[in-house]
Request: fold
Amino acid sequence: MSTENQACTHDCHTCGSDCSARTAPKYAELNPLSKIRKVIAVVSGKGGVGKSLVSSMLAVGVQRAGKHAAILDADITGASIPKVFGVTGRVFGNDYGLIPVRTETGIQMMSVNLMLENETDPVIWRSPMITGVVKQFWSEVVWDDVDCLLIDMPPGTGDVPLTVFQSIPVDGIVIVTSPQDLVSMIVRKAVNMANMMQIPIIGLIENMSYAVCPDCGKKIMIYGESHTAEIAGEYHLPLLAQIPFDPALTKCCDAGQIEAHHSDALDYAVTSILGR
Reply:
């Protein structure tokens, strides 16, 4: 056996060597009745930056662009996607698999909250069960003719992101951040993980970028000067959007009516995703 093979960890996802033993990733099988053309993961290095909001807004944007959008809510212990869309129905299954719930505009959705007796019931599961459910959402759900499946990831770089990247053929990721200096360090972690897993990064989206004065229209940088554009430039990545504080958007989300909100903040991001 060669020295190269002796040192092999058999994890080609995290290896940059172009050796003879290198094999293609073995992804989990998609339900035979599912059809998904593109998979985009929405990630963040930490919680509280608006990742689920961005996932929801991107899905709405894809749907408005005349394509079929779907959301796989992989944030099992902190699921919030159904609430934002006002979806309260329960998923059901048949002989072919689990059938995702659809929103008012037809966005397909699968979330653990749609499988609980009450949406406020806590999901107190250990990691193997959580990652197993994420795989089930990919393999056992009948995703009907989806142009773009958005995966709302949990924050951080732990078990679930690793499971998604190793089990699902992700075409690209969008990294969500906010303007604070502290978050810039976390963004670098997310970028570095994506590079290690060899997942293309579509770009960065900055949330809570500024507020607009209702009287004079002046932009107010609540968190101070943003450094997200600098980080994007450092890694040669596009800054896809800077989303302002928007009371109207907050009101729509609280009411479960995000599909009724109209904004052009993510138009470029949607175009970038669909154009890949």
Summary: The first strand starts at residue 39 and ends at 43. The chain has a mean pLDDT of 89. The radius of gyration is 19 Å. Residues 180 and 223 are 6 Å apart (CA to CA).
